[in-house]
Design brief:
By secondary structure, this protein is mainly alpha-helical. 66% of the residues lie in helices and 6% in strands. It is built from 5 helices and 2 strands, in the order αβααβαα. A two-stranded antiparallel ribbon has the order 1-2. Helix 2 packs across helix 3. The radius of gyration is 23 Å and the shape is flat.
């Protein structure tokens, strides 16, 4: 039987605690600034810059504290999709095909 020392137990407990915190974060719809920064994997400073530039949706009900709706953060993330090279090539091919068909008419 393998012996487990205190450091290993502590490490496993920390991992479980992190997993529970992440699970809790994924179940909340309204997030604080700290939770939102963690959810987006950015610093709070970067999050404040985004709110200051009005580049990200947020709520400020009392005039001081900021809140974020998780579903809106998801939508914001997915709005910034980059087109792949293969998608660009496919669009170019389609454009050229359509252009050549129009020239034949």
């Amino acid at each position: 039987m393998t012996q487990v020392n205190d450091a290993q137990i502590y490490e496993k407990l920390e991992r479980i605690e992190r997993m529970l915190a992440e699970q809790n974060l994924l179940q909340k719809e309204v997030l604080t600034t700290t939770e939102s920064a963690e959810y987006l994997d950015i610093s709070e400073s970067q999050l404040y810059k985004l709110t200051s530039a009005e580049a990200i949706p947020y709520y400020k009900p009392g005039g001081k504290k900021l809140y974020f709706r998780r579903s809106e953060l998801d939508a914001w993330i997915f709005r910034h999709r980059r087109t792949t090279r293969s998608e660009i090539a496919a669009k170019a091919d389609m454009y050229l095909k359509n252009k050549s068909l129009k020239n034949k008419i």
